[in-house]
Amino acid sequence: MFKKTTLSLALLGATTIANADVLTTVKPLGFIASAITDGVTNTQVLLPTSASPHDYSLKPSDVEKLQSANLVVWVGEEMESFLEKSVDNLAKEKVLTLEDVEEIKHIVEHTKEEKEEHHDHDHKHEHKHEHKHDHKHEHKHNGHDHDHDEDWHIWLSPVASEKIAEQIAMRLSQQMPEQKAKIEENLANFKVALNTKSAEIAKQFENVKEKGYYTFHDAYGYFEKTYGLNSLGSFTINPTIAPGAKTLNAIKKNIAKNKAVCLFAEPQFTPKVIESLSKGTSAKVGQLDPLGAKVELGKDAYPQFLQYLADQFSECLAK
Ligand SMILES: [Zn+2]
């Protein structure tokens, strides 16, 4: 948006960081950032929407982008292990790791505990809820540890997204103190737009809330919880690992038993299994795009993204 020129640099003087380009990993983080940077600086997104953060690998041009950005916004190694090493090489003040933000951590851990308590009640598990049994749920992928009970798809949580916006605003204001007023105004506008949209979506779902469905990967927990949707489960926790025959059989039985209305696929993965599962059942196949491929960056992008996702849900569920 704003091209760096010798002239503007000279005018601004050495004390100011001009042109603080914000670079986010996934596009929805870019939706949030572009609301905060509106009229201040520009926002760029690292990952193409055809790629999944679960199995991305960096290209040399990505490394260049990371190095030239003034603020890199990423979820963290739980979600984006491909970035761990590159981020370590960047100056600390240039990186916003959302995983390390207390308020966001709190949302994720609280949700995880709720899930575990639910689990214990529903299935009368032997073990009592303990805070220190995390290691039992850890699996290794590509040499990295992942706690699968923690859901780091935080850009699908309107509440977490508000915190993300606050963090970006804070960091940007530190880098560009002369723009603080504009950044604060952008943040306030973002919050209003987000809450207005969220209320609209809650209304939109009123008639489809009861309808059961399966998703391809376990990414939508925050969105589902926010709007009270009736998810029956997902095919896989990590979408890079294909569901096994056992899982598929169980789902096949459950589609009929639970009267699942929809099976949701995703553009980032080509799940042949979903098509084959829908055959012989009354469940329809829908699409959910957790990365908002069709939404463009801009100050209203995040509410538009929520609406885009809401429409994808209700289009299939309402049929
Ligand atoms: Zn995911």
Automatic annotation (TrEMBL):
Where does the protein principally reside? periplasm
Q: Which GO terms describe its biological process?
A: zinc ion transport
Point out the signal peptide segment.
Answer: 1-20
Q: Which CDD domains match?
A: ZnuA (cd01019)
Tell me where in or outside the cell this protein is found.
Answer: Periplasm
Q: Name one GO cellular component term.
A: periplasmic space
Task: Please tell me whether the keyword Transcription is annotated for this protein.
Answer: no
Sorted keywords for this record are: Disulfide bond, Ion transport, Metal-binding, Periplasm, Signal, Transport, Zinc, Zinc transport
Name one molecular function that GO assigns to this entry.
metal ion binding
Q: Where is the composition biased (Basic residues)?
A: 121-143
Residue ranges with Basic and acidic residues bias:
111-120
Gene3D superfamilies with a match to the protein in the record? Nitrogenase molybdenum iron protein domain
Q: Where is this region: Disordered?
A: 111-146
NCBIfam families reported in the protein's UniProt record? PRK09545.1
Q: Give the family per the record.
A: Belongs to the bacterial solute-binding protein 9 family.
What is the recorded function of this protein according to its Swiss-Prot or TrEMBL entry?
Part of the ATP-binding cassette (ABC) transport system ZnuABC involved in zinc import. Binds zinc with high affinity and specificity and delivers it to the membrane permease for translocation into the cytoplasm.
Q: Mind telling me which PANTHER family this protein's record contains?
A: HIGH-AFFINITY ZINC UPTAKE SYSTEM PROTEIN ZNUA, HIGH-AFFINITY ZINC UPTAKE SYSTEM PROTEIN ZNUA-RELATED
Q: What is this protein called?
A: High-affinity zinc uptake system protein ZnuA
Read off the lineage from the record: Bacteria, Pseudomonadati, Pseudomonadota, Gammaproteobacteria, Pasteurellales
Q: Which gene encodes it?
A: znuA
